[in-house]
Amino acid sequence: MSLSLEQVHRVAQLARLEISDAEAETTRTQLNAIFTLIEAMQAVDTKGIEPMAHAQDLSQRLRPDEVTETDRRGAFQAVSPEVEAGLFLVPKVIE
Amino acid sequence: MKQWEVVIGIETHAQLQTRSKIFSGSSTAFGAEPNVQANAVDLALPGVLPVLNRGAVECAIRFGLAVEGEVAPKSVFARKNYFYPDLPKGYQISQYELPVVVGGKLTITLGEGDAAVEKTINLTRAHLEEDAGKSLHEDFHGKSGIDLNRAGTPLLEIVTEPDMRSSAEAVAYARALHALVRWIGICDGNMQEGSFRCDANVSVRPVGQQEFGTRREIKNLNSFRFMQQAIDYEVSWQINEIEEGRAIQQATVLFDPDTGETRSMRTKEDAHDYRYFPDPDLLPLMIDRDWVARTRADMPELPTAKKQRFVADFGLSAYDATTLTASLDIAGYYEAAVAVAGKGAAKPCANWVMVDLAARLNKDGLDIASSPVSAAQLGGLVARIADNTISNNIAKKVFEALWAGEGQSADEIIEKQGLKQITDTGAIEKLIDEVLAANAAMVAEFKAGKEKAFNALVGQAMKATKGKANPQQVNELLRKKLAGA
Q1: Looking at beta carbons, which residues of chain B come within 8 Å of A59?
Q2: Which domains does chain A have, with CATH numbers?
Q3: What are the boundaries of the signal sequence (chain B) (predicted)?
């Protein structure tokens, strides 16, 4: 399998990455090399093996339903570019 | 004219009633100052890891049991990727291939009284996920304000099969689900605060056609009335489009309550590509049979079972049983009242709860949980009607007295205010004699054949007993007296 330039631009768009046509070409070559690796892995016969959702065969640890966090808004907002009335301000987005 | 069939499936986001968030120890309380309940995990600061809340899983198990679905022994959390400022991680943790609840069903009732019919709506799945924050687009010098208090609030997304065939069925389903999640204590159901939000997938097809038509999804219906209006509008819009020769394009639409119309938000071409994959930060969620069994033992009797028991044990009509199982609070109140009044008075108890109490609560804008008249007090009152200590009319006075806190029990008020029904025939006869003597003109009219005069005499006699006599008894005695006089 190999990617088209158009697909590279699409993936970049989904990841909100701005790439030039030259970068897209380099990226395409690199991604295709990764696909070669994946193809090699897919050649392994995995018939009858249940897919794992995680590399470690363990189950999720759970925490009790308790409020353990306190208000640290001041500290968090001290490092944020723009705040007002307790809100984080971001460029206007309306879908 | 072609006949059209409507096909509807519903997705509901129910906010789970946990104290803390699904993957962090921040509070989920509603209405806090912006961002004071958003910690490092909710803000997606580098290096943080999510840890799953046992309480949220417990809610999912309760729901799975309540709808008779399968509680998955193993389920997996996945990342749903998209960019939006109120989603700091750039992905929402949700479940995709292996949800926590598979299948299940909910029975809805359509129509009322004798015309009522039941229908089963099948569920596809229910999965756990986190809510996003809130974006405020008001005036912040051309910028948007972000409040992340809601980010990470646990949600259960409940998905139905495309089983509904009208807006009425869709609303009946949404109402039944709303009642159920509150009943089992997993969601407060507050639609104004966004605790219970529905999306409706709507399509139409010619009657008899097997394949589904192309669907459009109406997002974020936050009231039952809007749901009905939005679906009705959408259905007639789709039928009109097809009849005019235009094909329906798959799309996401929003309902505008001001215009009563739905409008397209995005079409299939610019639909999100979420690129789901298992979240490497979270291991599979394993739920063992013991946990399910313990949860089952801890569940309240479900509304359907309770309703059937009210009909079988208390002889209530299906309609009354449905009304009295509308919420756990109402059902609990009713059962506590019957426990005091006695099973023989179950029917009058039902009437008092559904009519008198409901009207009084409504007048003061109270819900049953904060009723000034307790279930035991109401039961005690109904018991005194049942054993003829007081008439129904006097009972209404006693009820008002209980409401005003004039006594601890109906018995105390009846005693203190001397409201006991006069059943002593001699005493009533004496009063009737006095009434007859004082109203000779009316007696003469009655004797001249005016039946109206009799009713007036009954009224006078009841007045003389201060309403404490049994009207039936007064009636009989008066007739006897007049016949003999």
Answers
A1: 283-286
A2: 5-42 (1.10.20)
A3: none
A92 lies within 8 A of chain B by CB: yes
The conformation of residue B139, written as its DSSP 8-state character, comes to: E
Q: Which residues of B362-377 are buried (b: 16+ CB within 10 A; e: fewer)?
A: eeeeeebeebebbbbb
Are B402 and B346 part of one and the same domain?
Answer: yes
**CATH code assigned at B477:** 1.10.10.410
User: What's the pLDDT score for residue B1?
Assistant: 66
- Residue linked to tokens 């099948």: B122
Phi, psi of B56, deg, nearest 5: -65, -40
Q: Are residues B268 and B377 in the same domain?
A: no
Residue labelled with tokens 């309703």: B307
Specify if B296 maps to a domain: no
B285-286 and B52-53 strand pairing: unpaired
Contact B25 A95 (CB under 8 A): no
The Cα of A48 is separated from the nearest Cα of chain B by a number of Å equal to: 18
d(CA B141, CA B253): 29
What is the spatial distance between Cα A42 and Cα B204, in angstroms, rounded to a whole number?
43
- What would the mean pLDDT of B319-337 be, rounded to a whole number? 93
Q: Which chain A residues touch B75 with a CB distance below 8 Å?
A: none
Query: In the sheet that B91-95 helps form, which strands lie side by side, from edge to edge?
Result: B91-95, B77-81, B277-278
> B200 with B310, same domain?
no
Beta carbons of B125 and B32 less than 8 angstroms apart: no
Q: Looking at the structure, do residues B146 and B216 belong to the same domain, yes or no?
A: yes
Q: Show the domain range for B456.
A: 425-484
The count of structural domains within chain B is 3
Which chain B residues have a beta carbon less than 8 Å from that of A92? 137, 142-144
User: How confident is the model over B102-159, as pLDDT tens digits?
Assistant: 999 999 989 877 788 999 999 999 999 999 999 988 778 889 999 999 999 999 999 9
